[in-house]
Amino acid sequence: MAFASWFACEVFGDTVPGREPILCSTEIGHYRVAGETDILVELEWTEGVCAVIHVEDKLAAEPQPDQADRYRIAVEQSETALTASALVAPRAWMRRHPRETERYDAVIVLERIASEIGQRASQVEKTPTDEAGELARRLRYREQLLSGSMLKRAVFGAIQAGELTDWNLAAAEVIAATNGLQLKIAPRQKSEGRNQASRFFKFDEVLSPHSGSAPLLRLKTVDVNRPGRVSLELRGASNDEALAGRAQSVGFETSNTKAGTLIIEGTTEALSGLTIAKPVAEQIDKLEDAANVAQSLIEWWEKVAAEAQ
Q: Which one is predicted more confidently, 161 or 292?
């Protein structure tokens, strides 16, 4: 019940008692008129206080249309006075979707949950009993699972061991393990054939539109004249000097295509050397940088788009 008490305080603050509830129930996949709640939490304390939390659990999936509004409706229709919606997601996801994030009553970062579990494990480890030792091991397992460190070790280990040899798929796995961003990899996408010098990959991320058109985010490996990089491509924006200037002011490079697309690019010393000529196992640091540069471009763009509204 200790975790339930902590979680409830994160959602409701001082509105709920600070002690552990006497009852706590959870339902996975709660169906309601306005949609589905990922996790429905119901709590009760000795003081007679009752609370309900509608939890939306995100890892990498994009927000669904009107998803936050459907949670708001569920809260409004609740028969329990103390009801709230809560978004639980990795910090990187929230930074990529700031406007979606702020529409929930409460926001709990997944890494914060992992840290709380880790603190609990540290306390239990001080008790020198077999039972405490087993509980601590379980808590540490959950901490690593939620923090993403276990996923990284599994992915990187498989690549280093040669268990994942397709360059495209291995690169996509490294990026996903870094911060949850997804590369769109079609079956046999350019693994063979005409494009042997370099490759372009589109990120499977829906960005706020520019002049009615959604920007494209791409990862580009080294080619003859260009370094490895991540690019944000805005069609029809080649004449937007103010936008290009804003991008340059925060360290991104810009260029225009003959078709009128504004290209905003970012790279790092490591990412600049990303090449398909070397195995992914030798370039994990470069792909981690690619994930982080893509994250930075998304955050910058979403801030710009929000200010324009």
A: 292
Asked if 179 and 299 sit in the same domain, the reply is yes
178 CB burial (10 A radius; 0-12, 13-18, 19+): buried
Q: How far is 104 from 55, CA to CA, in rounded Å?
A: 10
Domain count, the chain: 2
| Lookup: tokens for 69 | 């509004």
In this structure, are 177 and 278 located in the same domain? yes
- Taking each helix axis from N to C end, the angle separating 110-124 and 130-147, rounded to the nearest 10 degrees, works out to 160
Q: Which domain holds residue 259?
A: 149-308
Which tokens go with 231? 């690019």
Q: Which of 130, 157, 175 is the last residue of a domain?
A: 130
Average pLDDT on 286-290 reads 96
- Asked if the structure places residue 43 within a domain, the reply is yes
Q: What is the pLDDT of residue 39?
A: 94
| Residue 194: predicted pLDDT | 47
Q: Sign of the CA dihedral 269, 293, 167, 282?
A: positive
At 217, which CATH number?
Answer: 3.30.1460
Write the pLDDT tens digit of every residue in 26-45: 999 998 877 899 999 999 99
Other CB atoms within a 10 A radius of the CB of residue 264 amount to 25
Q: Is residue 144 part of a domain?
A: no
pLDDT tens track for 11-25: 999 998 888 899 999
Contact indicator for 262, 256 with CB cutoff of 8 Å:
yes
Q: Which two tokens stand for residue 57?
A: 């659990």
